[in-house]
């Protein structure tokens, strides 16, 4: 298997090169040349395996240029109880009769990004070694809150790497900001941007693909790579937990092995749900993929109309990790749905950057609607869902998971589709304590974030994750805020490249 670019189908690189580069030089995203299959027998054989072993099987199918030893090295370091608070790694819990919740947030930063970012540094450094690359790698990250911290934790003090994270000054929760501002490690930089997440993402993409910057960096013995979900090394680990969750549901008798399940994903950059789509196309019995958005519902509209239109007001919501108007990974889905039509992708994404919108063909729209269902809810509905879920099922959802739950309940009401459903839960409620408490108690508290965490512990009965409890005593190391136009200079300066 090799990897192509969504904007150049003739490109052929190994997975190691795709992971090392992060994004293709033509601005497209790396994508495997085919979707490997998993047979029902092989899927069933995963039942007796632990998470690491299941990961080895899935990675083995996508990273065909890695040896089994290299893959096992990566998975054993990433998916251990040293890094995750549960042996299951991804914890399957029961919500109510028709639904299971897959808690993806038991890693060091309490958000689902850890599932990929705990392993990415191993995949990346292994890839560089395989390619005989001797440059130091600089990881540039745009974050809506969770990726940044998860990437910082993954890469801190990893030899021969440096990491720089940009987040929207007003776009992250107090706890997220504190997590990043107190980041430890000798190779880390964190900076706030006057702008929103899309500004951060566009800035990073621009620096990344700028030939001039690349040359300067190379002269200094460095190269960029990406830890954003455009890197295939982020996508592949996410496929693992959908494969594993299916097997786990069968093992626990939630379904009979072979039954079809639906999957609901609270969506932003479209990485998480795309991984579920890959699992489905590998052969995991998955029916509908339900794409849940907050009021920034560009994806809901797209799935309904076939027109992707980012020309709209941007809202800061209580589910900030989903406040995104350009969902980068959609490009990979559209590449698959057009059977690899790179010219078509160039046209649509060219239009997206010049006009802010594009419309797919009727054929592609029909394919999209066959697998995907879109839905959204606003902040008031999100909070009501947290409140009602707590009361009815004694289960505490964070604000992102609650969007998924609400969109699922709406879907259930509309379709009466009783297919067993897996809801992806993407963050610990403690990461968004203020909003979660406000939802449960009906009023906003003025207490500081640690009092709120303590209070939420009383209300929810959930143990406070150690990593969040520890933040309280850590000093703030990063407090810079810059204009979005200043990003490139800032990056070069920090890297000591002044000319
Ligand atoms: C990143 C994130 C999302 C969105 O995931 P995508 O892969 O970008 O669609 C949802 N919820 C939380 C808590 C996140 O951190």
Explain the layout of strands and helices.
Blueprint: E1 3-5, E2 8-13, H1 15-21, E3 30-32, H2 40-45, H3 51-62, H4 68-78, E4 91-96, E5 99-103, H5 113-117, H6 120-130, E6 136-142, H7 146-155, E7 161-168, H8 174-181, E8 188-194, H9 197-209, H10 211-219, E9 222-226, H11 232-251, E10 261-266, H12 271-282, E11 286-293, H13 298-305, E12 307-309, H14 330-337, H15 342-354, E13 357-359, H16 362-371, E14 372-376, H17 379-393, H18 399-415, E15 421-425, H19 433-441, H20 449-460, H21 466-471, E16 481-483, H22 487-494
Parallel strand pairs: 5-15, 6-7, 6-9, 7-8, 8-16, 10-11, 10-15, 11-14
Antiparallel strand pairs: 1-2, 1-3, 4-5, 12-13
Helix pairs in contact: 1-6, 3-4, 3-11, 4-6, 11-12, 17-18, 17-19, 19-20
Bound molecules: pyridoxal-5'-phosphate.
Bound ligand species: pyridoxal-5'-phosphate
Tell me, briefly, the overall form. globular
State the separation between the terminal residues, measured CA to CA.
Answer: 41 Å
CATH topology grouping of the domain at 91-109 and 233-463: Rossmann fold
Strand content: 15-25%
Per CATH, the class of the domain at 91-109 and 233-463 reads Alpha Beta
Low-confidence stretches: none
Strand order of the largest sheet: 4-5-15-10-11-14
Please give the oligomerization state of what you see.
single chain
Radius of gyration (CA) equals: 21 Å
The total count of strands amounts to 16
Instruction: Give the rounded overall mean pLDDT.
Output: 95
Task: Determine the fraction of residues in helical runs and give it as a percent range.
Answer: 40-55%
Describe the largest sheet.
Answer: 6 strands, mixed
Structural class: alpha/beta
Tell me the number of helical segments per DSSP (H or I, 4 or more residues long): 22
How does CATH name the architecture of the domain at 91-109 and 233-463? 3-Layer(aba) Sandwich
